[in-house]
Amino acid sequence: MSGLNGRDFLSLTDLSAAEVEGLLELAQALKSGEITPHCKKVLGLLFYKASTRTRVSFSVAMYQLGGQVIDLNPKVTQVGRGEPLADTARVLDRYLDVVAIRTFAHSDLEAFAHYANIPVLNALTDLAHPCQALADLLTLRECFGEIRGTTVTYVGDGNNVAHSLMLCCALLGVNVRVATPPGFEPHGQMVETARQLAGDRAQVEVLRDPVAAVKGVQAIYTDVWASMGQEAEARDRIPVFQPYQVNEDLMTHADSEVILLHCLPAHRGEEITDEAIEGPHSRVWDQAENRMHVQKALLASILGAV
To answer: For the segment 128-144, what is each residue's pLDDT rounded down to a tens digit?
Structure first.
């Protein structure tokens, strides 16, 4: 994975299919203990949005590589008092070896990467969540082995998670269906990009009917109906999204060996039921663990440890 050394990771479009495959293979080797790279570097976490899994998984991954982590909480640093992004980027560039940023506007992430020479990693923006998608596809590989030709259905809001899932599936030849209510479809340009990446290797579909969307699929995926920053809309969205709830009845239309995925946190009783997330088809906790392994692979590759 030396080809990733020193590069930014802002979107799945920054990687080739071979590079994504290589990261997933490296993540599996790291998870099994087959290899144990050492990387005495410093990771900065600049998070403008709340986080549990992303913050902890990045931190543990860096610590396990032998490095250090600095939490650049905007509430206790000058970025929270309006210091220009360009100034912050150029200063942190002199202190850190790599920075993971979790923010709202994707353009802010791109601007930071423009001004900083160190690698910049997307820890979530309103447009994309590429590290989550890597963990999702690693989970698929663990469950099915060969994943090319399998089908994943994402049910719910066509948000940043849906965007990155489409791109990652397209790169690896996995069919992806996104079922949303009218007006909540994934961004049209993201759909078109995913279809271009897929070529004739996979299908990328946007559907309305959740039952039709999950028919015969190997994986069903969902996320909260209102993402961070949309809390004021949450109550109004419930009746709109209720037909898209992932429950045991919906899952009966999928393949008998279907797995259930959720990027968490889950609003049980809304987008997913207790019976579904705690049932035998759920791989949600493996999926959450895999965040650490894929991010460890990403850090090791970008920092030249492998």
So the answer is: 999 999 999 999 999 99
* DSSP per residue, 168-228: HHHHTT-EEEEE--TT-PPPHHHHHHHHHHHTTS--EEEES-HHHHHTT-SEEEE--SS-T
Do the domains 132-287 and 2-128+291-302 match in fold? yes
The CATH class for the domain spanning 132-287 reads alpha beta
And the tokens for 255?
A: 């393949």
Does the annotation place 7 within a ligand binding site? no
78 is in an annotated binding site: yes
CB 244 within 8 A of CB 180: yes
Provide the 3-class DSSP secondary structure of residue 282.
Answer: strand
Residue 54, annotated ligand binder? yes
Write out the catalytic residue numbers: 102, 129, 132, 223, 263, 291
Residue 229 has pLDDT above 80, yes or no: no
